[in-house]
Write a structure and sequence with these properties.
single chain; alpha+beta; Aspartate Aminotransferase, domain 1; 4 helices
């Protein structure tokens, strides 16, 4: 799967930004300062995404390329292998990114969520 396609999808979320708080090797995608995705800049294509714990377990049991989050809270984060051997359909990866973004947004203060949904940033 193409790293740039996944990167662009993350950055097209409302108010999403790319940051490098852990160094130049890992792109971190944030909304309102909160992480919703992490993706290595080089090497095998993969992405770590926030996930509701029950759904995280379902995804892990459904897709061999979905594992507990690498160096993250394994209950709330999944790492998703996206390199050439991955069997996960692109639309499913996009659904996982959407879910991760939504998990972070729902944890934001109500006024911020309302401004995000109204596009008033």
């Amino acid at each position: 799967m193409d790293r740039e396609v996944v990167r662009d999808y993350c950055l097209n979320k409302p108010e999403a930004v790319e940051d490098f708080p852990f160094g130049a090797d890992v792109a971190v995608f944030k909304v309102m300062g909160k992480m919703f995705a992490l993706m290595p800049v080089t090497g095998a294509v993969s992405i770590s995404l926030k996930c509701e714990p029950m759904l995280a377990d379902i995804l892990r049991s459904t897709f061999a390329d979905v594992t507990p989050g690498y160096h993250l809270n394994k209950r709330h984060w999944n790492s998703v292998k996206l390199d050439g051997d991955s069997t996960i359909p692109l639309d499913e990866v996009f659904n996982m990114i959407d879910h991760s973004y939504e998990q972070v947004v729902k944890g934001l203060p109500k006024k911020v969520r309302e401004r995000l949904s109204d596009g008033k940033f």
